[in-house]
């Protein structure tokens, strides 16, 4: 049995009730095989993989809170402090009923590699609670956040663990969490990222994931000897990532012909109008079908996803598992030769297998959407300096980071004999730096 298989079998025996985590660990470990087999003696001697797959610590706590009717509730809160070899733990907090330890460990492991790829000094972590903010009043959300932080504050800090938002944790929640941290500790420090601009947030953070996605897509396309200008792009979603991906892609001369929400998608053969999109989604918070009523020539397709539309490039920016094997086949049959993921895990396993078998260019989420966490790390730097950088400065750093991620992913893939396989490239490139740091720091 190979070292990778041995470690996976051990993990399966220890954590049989964590299917999401086991699945992610299996996929990551398998893709690391080329680097592991080259360094097997050293890795084994130092129990490197056994340590890599186990979080340094997991904190679990109860979160008691009272709703507006005076009824008491108890939720479960977590922080998985997975790996601090290259920097303080960094990763979002998710508030969603589906949150459990298995899902947070899976997301935390992915985060270690994503953060490493940014080349910034941030380790991997993830946290959250099985709390559903939907339908809760502001006061209820505030009480929940305050109770959650009353426990979590003991374990985080600007140099130890710096959480951010994720599903269900946006600007409002980050504000409440920050307020309570400051109240409990008396410290005004960059302990959370994604903060409001008036209390330490970074310019260009809202744009970062979408812009970063397009910057790396541009590199992928150039790497294939083509250019983004004039290409037709299909985008899914119409939220934060989708909006800024559309804006930047159009700025660079591509034509984005679709966007969507959970009810259906818009096809606009003239290119999605960013101003109209933002008016509908950011200002009116309305459904995407409104777009077709306002923009002549566009069409609304209720209950469908945009994967049947002819395109060169697809940027899934909505949600997990939104592209399945059949969708991937449809995309390829319609001429799509490049997929870069804005959302986390938008392509299911069958879709990824389809891309790889067809040898189209496929940049996985941990590299393609790393712009968000990269600018969060830049927010940490600005907080430490007590300075705010201009939009242009942050954007230019983001651009450089995405170009470097592409270089590192593609060169690593090539070095290990998997040219243009960016899945292998991203996992190994992310892992290499973490492994080197872990070896240097001894058995801890
Ligand atoms: P938003 O909530 O702003 O937007 C999500 C978009 O996806 C909305 O248009 C939403 O439509 C749509 N959507 C949600 N669920 C479904 C579904 N089941 N089917 C079809 N469409 C759906 O989120 P973000 O743009 O911030 O995030 C999008 C993805 O990017 C997520 O996977 C997130 O984890 C990932 N990501 C985000 C980062 C960031 O900085 N924001 C950083 C890295 C990754 P509706 O309005 O109908 O719900």
Written description of the protein model:
The chain is α/β, with parallel strands linked by helices and 444 residues long. It has 2 domains: 3-187, Rossmann fold (3-Layer(aba) Sandwich); 206-363, NAD(P)-binding Rossmann-like Domain (Rossmann fold, 3-Layer(aba) Sandwich). Helices cover 49% and strands 16% of the residues. The chain contains 17 helices and 12 strands. It has helices at 3-14, 19-38, 40-45, 48-52, 101-117, 138-152, 171-185, 205-223, 240-251, 274-283, 290-294, 325-333, 349-358, 365-368, 371-385, 391-415, 422-440; strands spanning 57-66, 72-83, 89-95, 123-129, 161-164, 232-236, 255-261, 264-267, 299-302, 313-316, 338-340, 361-363. The protein has a 7-stranded mixed sheet with strand order 9-8-7-6-10-11-12, with helices on both faces. Strands 1-2-4-3-5 form a 5-stranded mixed sheet, sandwiched between helices. Strand 3, helix 5 (101-117) and strand 4 form a beta-alpha-beta unit. Helix 2 (19-38) runs parallel beside helix 5 (101-117) and helix 5 (101-117) packs across helix 17. It is globular. It starts with a helix and ends with a helix. Bound molecules: NADPH dihydro-nicotinamide-adenine-dinucleotide phosphate. The site of NADPH dihydro-nicotinamide-adenine-dinucleotide phosphate has 19 residues, from helix 9 and strand 7.
């Amino acid at each position: 049995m190979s070292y990778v298989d041995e470690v996976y079998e051990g993990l399966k025996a220890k954590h049989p009730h964590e299917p999401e985590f086991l699945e992610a660990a299996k996929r990551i470990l398998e893709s690391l095989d080329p680097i592991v087999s080259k360094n097997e003696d050293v890795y084994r001697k130092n129990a490197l993989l056994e340590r890599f797959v186990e979080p340094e610590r997991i904190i679990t706590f109860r979160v008691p809170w009272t709703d507006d009717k005076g009824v008491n509730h108890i939720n479960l809160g977590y922080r998985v402090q997975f790996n601090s070899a290259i920097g303080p733990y960094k990763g979002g907090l998710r508030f969603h009923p589906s949150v459990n330890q298995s899902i947070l460990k899976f997301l935390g492991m992915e985060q270690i590699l994503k953060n490493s790829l940014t080349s910034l000094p941030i380790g991997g972590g993830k946290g959250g609670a099985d709390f559903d903010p939907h339908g809760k009043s502001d006061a209820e959300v505030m009480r929940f956040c305050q109770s959650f932080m009353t426990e979590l504050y003991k374990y985080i800090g600007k140099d130890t663990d710096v959480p951010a938002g994720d599903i269900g944790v946006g600007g409002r929640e980050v504000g409440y969490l920050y307020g309570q941290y400051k109240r409990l500790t008396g410290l005004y420090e960059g302990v959370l990222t994604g903060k409001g601009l008036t209390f330490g947030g970074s310019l260009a953070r809202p744009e970062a994931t979408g812009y970063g996605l397009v910057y790396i897509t541009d590199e992928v396309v150039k790497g294939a000897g083509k250019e983004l200008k004039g290409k037709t792009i299909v985008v899914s979603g119409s939220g934060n990532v989708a909006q800024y991906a559309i804006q930047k892609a159009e700025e660079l001369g591509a034509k984005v012909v679709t966007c969507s929400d959970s009810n259906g998608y818009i096809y606009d053969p003239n290119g999605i109008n960013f101003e109209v999109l933002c008016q509908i989604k950011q200002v009116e918070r309305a459904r995407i079908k409104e777009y077709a009523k306002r923009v002549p020539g566009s069409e609304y397709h209720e209950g469908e996803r945009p994967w049947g539309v002819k395109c060169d490039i697809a940027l899934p920016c909505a949600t997990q598992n939104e592209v399945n094997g059949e969708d991937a086949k449809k995309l390829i049959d319609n001429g799509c030769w490049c997929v870069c993921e804005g959302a986390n895990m938008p392509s299911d396993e069958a879709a990824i297998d389809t891309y790889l078998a067809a040898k189209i260019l496929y940049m996985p989420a941990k590299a393609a959407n790393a712009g968000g966490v990269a600018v969060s790390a830049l927010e940490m730097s600005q907080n430490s300096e007590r300075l705010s950088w201009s939009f242009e400065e942050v954007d230019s750093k983001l651009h450089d980071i995405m170009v470097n991620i592409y270089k590192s992913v593609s060169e690593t893939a090539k070095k290990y004999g998997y040219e243009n396989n960016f899945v292998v490239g991203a996992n190994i490139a992310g892992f290499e730096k973490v492994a080197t740091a872990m070896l240097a720091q001894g058995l801890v």
